[in-house]
Amino acid sequence: MAGHRTEAHPHGADRLCDAGDRVYSRAVRRGRVSRKDAETVPCLVELALLHPDPDDMGWLVPTSPQEVMTRLLREMHEHVVATQSRMGKAVSAFEWYAALGGNARSPAEGAAIRVLDGLPRIRAAMDEATEACTSEVLAVQPGGIRREDELSEGLHRALALRRRGVRMRDLYTHVARHGQGLLNYMELMEEAAEARTLDEVTERLIVFDRTVAFIPASPDRTVALELRHPALVGYLVTVFERLWRLAIPLTAPLPDTGIDGITHRERSIAALLAEGHQDAVVAERLGISVRTCRAHIARLSETLGAASRTQLGVRIAQAGLDDPPRFPELQPLTAPDRPESPTGR
C-alpha cells in the first residue's frame, strides 16, 4: 500500500497533485476535512499537510500555509547552502588537478570557472575585465534603492568604459527608481548607459563583452564566480535579454494597474501573496523592507475590504490580482540588437 501511494503521488509539498490541491484548499477554507474526503489523497497526510483533529478523530485539520511555506523555505535554504559548498569544493579540486598537470591557465587565457574569495580579489578581477572590455556590459542589480557607496565603488569602472565608448545596460527593481543616487549616476553616464526596471530581478550579474560573467557565490557576496565558459555565459546573456525585453525604461513611468486605489507595487505584492509567500520573502524579492511591505499589505487589505489575511487572499483572487501584471504594449517586438563581439564573430 505504501508503495502504491508513493507511485500515485510522486511529489513533495512544493507541488501538489490536482486532487491534493483541491482537498487541501478546501481544508484551509473550512478549517478541517473529513477522513473520507481525504482517502483519495494520502499524500496530504504523508506530507504532514493534514493531521487528525484531536477533538474528533473522524476529521483532519490542515497545517497552516504559513507553516508549510516556512518548512519549504528552510529545506530550500539548506539545499542551496549544501550545493554552494559542493560547487566550491569541486571548482577548487578542478584547479588543483589542472595545476598538477601543468595546464593551469591564467585568467587572461580564459579559465572556465574561477572562485574569487574575498572582496579584494573580486574587485581586482572586475578591474581586469573592465580594462579588457571593448563593446558592451550587461548588469543585473537586485535589491532596492542603491546606496551611494555601492554606486561609488564601481564608478571608476563605469567612467573608464564610457570613455572607450562601451555600451552599458543595467536592470534594477522598480524600487530603485526612488533613489536620487541612481538618477545622478545615469545622468553622469549620459548616452553610454541605459537602465530598465522590473518588479523583481535575478541575483546580481555582470557580463563583459558576452565573454566573461561574474555572479555571487555566497549570500554576503564576499565570494564570487568568474565564468568564461561560452555555454554558461551565453545562457546568462539569454536570461538578461529576456528580462530586458520585459523591463520598463527608467525614463518611462510605471503603467497604471487599471484598478482604482491599487498601485503597481501593491499589485506585485498581491501576486506574490497569492503564491503563498511570506512577508519577508515578498520584501526580499521586490527589494523593499519588511516594514514597508507590511504597510503596503495593510493598505491593500483596506482597499479590498479584507479583515484578515485569509480574507485578503480571497479578495485578491476576486479582483484578479493573483497574477503578476503584464503590459505587452511596452515590450518591443524584437530583442535589442546584439553588438559585434570583439573577435568580429
Description:
Mean pLDDT is 78; it is low at 1-8, 104-110 and 327-345. The protein has 345 residues and is an alpha+beta fold. It has helices at 2-8, 18-30, 43-46, 65-100, 119-132, 148-153, 155-163, 180-189, 230-246, 264-274, 279-286, 290-304, 309-318, and strands at 33-34, 50-53, 56-62, 113-117, 136-141, 167-173, 193-198, 205-208, 212-216, 223-227, 248-249. 46% of the residues lie in helices and 15% in strands. It is globular and about 75 Å long. It is built from 13 helices and 11 strands. It folds into 3 domains: 2-63, no CATH class; 116-252, Endonuclease, Chain A, CATH 3.30.870.10; 255-338, Winged helix-like DNA-binding domain superfamily/Winged helix DNA-binding domain (Arc Repressor Mutant, subunit A, Orthogonal Bundle), CATH 1.10.10.10. A hairpin with a 3-residue loop joins strand 8 (205-208) and strand 9 (212-216). The protein starts with a helix and ends in a 27-residue tail after the last helix. Strands 4-10-9-8-5-6-7-11 form an 8-stranded mixed sheet, with helices on both faces. A 3-stranded antiparallel sheet has the order 1-3-2.
